[in-house]
Amino acid sequence: MAGSTRLVDRVAARIDDALDVHATELASISPDLEPFVARARELLAGGKRFRALFCYWGWRSVAAIAESGDPLPKLEGPDLDAELPAVISVAAALELFHAAALVHDDIIDSSDLRRGRPSAHRAFEALHREEGWDGDPADFGAASAILLGDLLLGWSDQLFEEGLARIADREAAAAARAEFTRMRTEVTVGQYLDVLEEDSWRSRPDGEALPRAHKVIVYKSAKYSVEAPLAIGGALAGGSLAQLTALRAFGLPLGVAFQLRDDMLGVFGDPAVTGKPSGDDLREGKRTVLIGLARQKMPPTAVRVLDELLGDPGLDEAQVRMLQNTVRDSGAADQVERIIAHNVRVAREALADAPLGGAATSALADLAERVTRRDA
């Protein structure tokens, strides 16, 4: 997907430009603010840019309908599409929003690592220790990371508005803004539902565990990771109700499959690839669909052991391996793989007769495989 590769490069360059501007702004206030930009650059230097890609191909799938021959765009040179810079800015804004969400998520989960490097709050904590400052390093780290996440949220909104300002169709710009606003609300309340589930599950009937876990997937991840970026992109191009409905019909089941893959990696992932400790979700006590299915399939004694150990941050490697084997032997992992495959099929079928550009739908179908067959 050469077009996607070039797009990722353009988005990365747009992010770098925005951070350069913010670095100058913060330096004019105080040199003590340099760690904010340094941490932001670390967070945004890597990643797979899936949200940016879905935004772009959502836009392209609608924009291509109005163009003869449904051509792929040139991402450089004099024939650059007139509104492509606007889409690049909006796609980059989604990446900044994602970085903000990761910073806050790592604080909530007390995660030590992010992509193989110290999470933002741990990096600020280390800075406190290195400098020998007064007070508690962990408190300083959490407070600083919260503020970094807030900064990234503001910078994301600013970049999003810069992109919208370049869209000639003001109704399309307003529709994209509405999608962005909805996405921010949904992922925030989805995060709360996730936190709530970790602490309240014992007071809920067992029969509610799976539907509640599914709701967390939908609102914390599926909409925000796939459906919303697609809808934002489609809205930028002035997409009709039928076109946006088709993008959602593709995006939601794919987003569910995307998060289910994440849940599998959170339990069984290779730390050398994921950049996080093996079994991290087990230590964090994530009440995922995978865990819900395992509890349904395991005998009562095994369920009691799982419930006792799940969420213990002090689990050693032997205990993690034991829980991994227990979950795997229950058949839950195989069932989740079947659910992932089913959702990918449903997503691809939604593209079959969709009123969207052909080249873009082919790219979306390829992306569906990439986001659900990943190992990190």
The strand count comes to 2
**Which strand order spans the largest sheet, edge to edge or round the barrel?**
1-2
Percentage of residues in helical conformation: over 70%
Question: For the CA atoms, what is the radius of gyration?
Answer: 21 Å
The total number of structural domains is 2
CATH topology of the largest domain: Farnesyl Diphosphate Synthase
Largest sheet report: 2 strands, antiparallel
Spans where pLDDT lies below 50 across 5 or more residues: 68-80
Distance between the termini: 20 Å
Order of helices and strands: HHHHEEHHHHHHHHHHHH
From the 3D coordinates, which CATH architecture of the largest domain would you assign?
Answer: Orthogonal Bundle
Mean of all residue-level pLDDT scores: 93
- What does the overall shape look like? globular
Mind telling me the CATH superfamily name of the largest domain?
A: Farnesyl Diphosphate Synthase
Q: Estimate what percentage of residues fall within beta strands.
A: under 5%
> Given the structure, what is the number of helices?
16
Task: Please write the CATH class name of the largest domain.
Answer: Mainly Alpha
The structure class reads mainly alpha
Give your account of this protein's structure.
It holds the Pfam family polyprenyl_synt. Its cofactor is Mg(2+). Belongs to the FPP/GGPP synthase family. Keywords: Magnesium, Metal-binding, Transferase. By secondary structure, the protein is mostly helical. It has two domains: 129 residues, Farnesyl Diphosphate Synthase (Orthogonal Bundle); 208 residues, Farnesyl Diphosphate Synthase. Strands 1-2 form a two-stranded antiparallel ribbon. A hairpin with a 2-residue loop joins β1 and β2. α7 packs antiparallel against α8 and α15 packs antiparallel against α16. The two termini are 20 Å apart.
